Amino acid sequence: MISMNPILEIEGLSLAAKSKKQLVTNVSLSVGAGESLGIVGESGSGKSLTLRSILGLLPRGVEQVSGVIKCDGRAAMIFQDPRGALDPLCPVVRQLAEVVYYRQNVSRRASRTIALELLEMLGLPDSLKHTDRYPSQLSGGQCQRIVIAIALACKPGILLCDEPTTALDVTVQQQIIETITRLQSELGFAIVFVTHNLAIAAAMCSKLCVMKEGKIVERGDSLSLLQNPQDPYTQMLINAVLPLPEFERSAGV
Ligand SMILES: Nc1ncnc2c1ncn2[C@@H]1O[C@H](COP(=O)(O)OP(=O)(O)OP(=O)(O)O)[C@@H](O)[C@H]1O
């Protein structure tokens, strides 16, 4: 699965804990400009560590032992817990304007104007524009939209998403996924989307990598991988997606 015109290439990445325990082994992948790649796998399979290594954001106690990561463009990341990604003591519009100011190299006045435009792009209510609100005064979905706006303020060539909808309820999950997809088609950035939810990954991404115990066990186009999974672990993941119950249309129901 080599991408033409790759914006991100990872070659032979291995990560280990300070205790020498191997956490990620020989992971290689590439993502083309404007492409979306989903990384799926159960908890602890190494998805987040792989994603974090792209930005050099490995947690304390984990180190890269081999491999090369080439990212040919700006990368921005959205995390699982939107509230935790925001400063609780700073109004959200000010946080957004601050990133615009430093990343886009514009005046303070222009940074606020651009921040307000980003709020609009993310479909956030007008009330946020007039009164500066703190993260604790926003819903989880609104906080995640602010986090996405902050990521977009960096004008990324690639957006790294680490389970960005896991902490949200299902209807808000759907809205956030639609928002990311819409912005991708408007702005053209590539996406790496990490999730344990195969259905979400397949809906969002044209290509998938399946990770198990720190290794990629299968990869391919989303549709063919779902229709014809080769690895028993991928088959198990697909079978684990619960089907909707069929409602009986019996008399009186
Ligand atoms: N700071 C750390 N020190 C030691 N081991 C760690 C550290 N952070 C993560 N690990 C281990 O690395 C492995 C991979 O973790 P990672 O967070 O990448 O998994 P994941 O697939 O993203 O899981 P989840 O879906 O639950 O977030 C796990 O076994 C985890 O316990």
TrEMBL record:
TM stretches of this protein: none
Family that this chain belongs to: Belongs to the ABC transporter superfamily.
Membrane topology: Peripheral membrane protein
The keyword Zinc is assigned to this record: no
Domain ABC transporter: from-to ranges: 8-238
Protein keywords: ATP-binding, Cell inner membrane, Cell membrane, Membrane, Nucleotide-binding, Translocase, Transport
Gene3D superfamilies documented for this protein: P-loop containing nucleotide triphosphate hydrolases
Cited PANTHER family: ATPASE AAA-TYPE CORE DOMAIN-CONTAINING PROTEIN, OLIGOPEPTIDE TRANSPORT ATP-BINDING PROTEIN APPD
SMART domains documented for this protein: AAA (SM00382)
Keyword Metal-binding: no
Name listed for the protein in its UniProt record: ABC transporter ATP-binding protein
Subcellular location: Cell membrane
